[in-house]
Design goal:
The protein has helices at residues 3-68, 76-97, 123-136, 145-166, 168-179. It is mainly alpha-helical.
Length: 180
């Protein structure tokens, strides 16, 4: 058998093998890129979700601050104005939160309501509304210690719900896995 008789098939076989190897490598790389792209989309959504609670946390803190405001530091009119501003922000934050946390079991309650309000409010939004309701009861003359403790608890629960949703530990582990 001459060199030219086996050289052509051998080169063709090697070429086919190289094609298969690169196809497999390309397939794995495409899958990795798709996972990275999906991860990026989730990160963008999470970035939007991480931005929303920032305003809520400031409003929670402002509400707690109002509970500790000494009666002598603000006159009643100033106090009530600050309280109303904070209540307004908490209300807006609850409404914005509906974009991330829709009501649960929409067919079970409130069929007469607009679609966003049917069902039961999720726990994370209950925290905001709970703080809102506590702040409505805060008075310039005090004492407001019980209201303050309740608002602080609502804030802590809120942070817990947000952290459960964002799950930063799992996100970091997933990113580490994708990059290795």
């Amino acid at each position: 058998m001459e060199l030219k008789d086996w050289l052509g098939p051998t080169i063709s076989g090697i070429g086919a093998l190289i094609t298969v190897v690169f196809s497999v490598i390309t397939r794995f790389e495409v899958r990795r890129q798709q996972r990275l792209q999906a991860f990026g989309l989730r990160r963008q959504y999470d970035a939007d979700l991480r931005t929303w609670p920032n305003g809520a946390l400031v409003a929670f803190t402002d509400a707690v601050t109002l509970t500790y405001t000494p009666p002598t530091s603000l006159d009643a009119k100033q106090f009530l104005l600050r309280r109303e501003e904070t209540l307004s922000r908490l209300s807006a934050i609850a409404e914005q939160g509906r974009l991330f946390f829709p009501n649960e079991q929409p067919d079970a309650h409130g069929a007469w309501k607009s679609s966003a309000y049917r069902g039961f409010r999720p726990a994370v939004l209950e925290c905001v509304i709970g703080a809102f309701n506590e702040l409505k009861q805060v008075t310039p003359e005090g004492p407001n210690d019980k209201r303050s403790a309740a608002i602080v608890q609502h804030r802590r629960d809120f942070v817990g719900h947000i952290q459960e949703r964002l799950d930063p530990r799992a996100r970091d582990a997933e990113l580490k896995e994708l990059l290795t």
